[in-house]
Amino acid sequence: MDQNKALLIKLFREKVKGRIPDVTGRNARHDGRKGNWLEEQFGKTPDADNHADFFGYELKNETTSKTTFGDWSANEYIFKTGPYANLFKGTTNPERQDSFCSIFGSPNPDKKNRCSWSGRPCPKIGTYNDFGQILVIEDNKDIVAYYSYSLDKRSDKASIVPLPLQKDDVEIARWYGVSDRNGIKTDKCLCSKLENKFGEKGWFTCKTDLSGRYNEICFGNPFNFDEWLDLVSKGIVFFDRGMYQGNKRPYSQWRANNSYWDSLIVERYQ
Hints:
Radius of gyration: 20 Å
Number of strands: 13
Strand order of the largest sheet: 2-12-11-5-4
Helix content: 10-25%
């Protein structure tokens, strides 16, 4: 057995097995607080580093129904760069992001009609949503969000969408696949982000029993970018946006349902 894997199993048995995460004193609004607790048991402090967490293995804390590959924002947004950036209100990126949400997102009556680019407006692979948006994988392996005015089913779209954007196939966000527009492969591309986390030794997760106590550590094989992109094309990996007005973070989660993650497990230890 790989010595790093053996060490993770040893740490699990000594520090995690049989325990319920103690989130006392942690931000109750932070969804990742249990995951942060778990990371700490393996010796890591919480961070946003885009490399495998432990000895070449990426730790994925299991949530209720879906688990995240990464929070990977687009490299280009229509409100930041390009010929239409001046159509978005504001002088700062967060202000223009709020304007973007008001145009391409949806108001939430329970949040005083705060607009968000999440839920129904969030574009998906293969089909346009009611907001005229879709995700497309380009031949160069970039992932692009497009907006088409003719497919926007909102009855008041004419009063929401600026006139220059009232046309089809408007690019509103782009994720670089393997290189930027100059053909340079950087750590900002999805390929680098994915393979830095999952391409070395693979990933692991810790399972709980019905009482919420950890009882098992599980391992999965490494991913490469082409495999991951194929999962995106099939809708198994999906874009789960959480951008909303008043928060400068774009929240761009790429996720898969836990049932799929479970199907990838190749080793289990108690």
